[in-house]
Amino acid sequence: LLIVGILLCTAPLQAQSLSDMLSSLLGSSSSSTSQPAEKPVYPTAKQIVGKWVYQQLDMDYTGDSTIASLGVATAKTQLSTLASAAKLTSGKDYVKLSSNGTFNLVSGERKIDGSYTYIPSTGRLILTVGDKLKAEAIVTLVDGGARIMFNAKQAALTVEQNSDSFKQSTAFQMMKEIVMAYPEITVGAIMK
After folding, report:
1. Which has the minimum average pLDDT: 66-70, 105-109, 172-176?
2. Rounded CA separation 149/6 (Å)
3. Which of 124, 146, 121, 145 is nearest to 135 (CA)?
4. Which helix (DSSP H) or strand (DSSP E) does residue 190 occupy?
5. pTM of the shown model
6. What H or E segment, with its residue span, contains residue 75?
């Protein structure tokens, strides 16, 4: 709130919205020259087969809203809190993708089995558990590992429907408010 107050007091009068004010103050605008985004490297169908060990949660925003960028930057500071609430253990929890199109996810005492479909040309991974749970992610290769990213809005709705503990989590509710407003936000994990 203090930052917003300072921005409102120091913003140029010609700014038409809070987003415009933040953009002008932070030097970010759609007309600025930025580096073109690197082309993602998607793994082959053979490369995704194997045991992928969880390292950390990740979050990204690809839109052009300065407000959303600030929101995601703030929400990223809460990822470790969410990982703790979900009882994720870096270096231990894993997902094993088999060549027959099945997967096993192990996180502490929890085990989830399901099937998957992978489209190498787009990096699209579709995970299915039973008849009612289906999730889609984009898999890219990053620094010798894989980055598995889900649409944050869909992920938040799925998590909320399937977990009572997250319904009471202040950090989760803060993130949910942000991701519901901006469909360009993705959440996921870095796996090695």
Report:
1. 172-176
2. 35
3. 124
4. strand 185-191
5. 0.73
6. helix 66-76
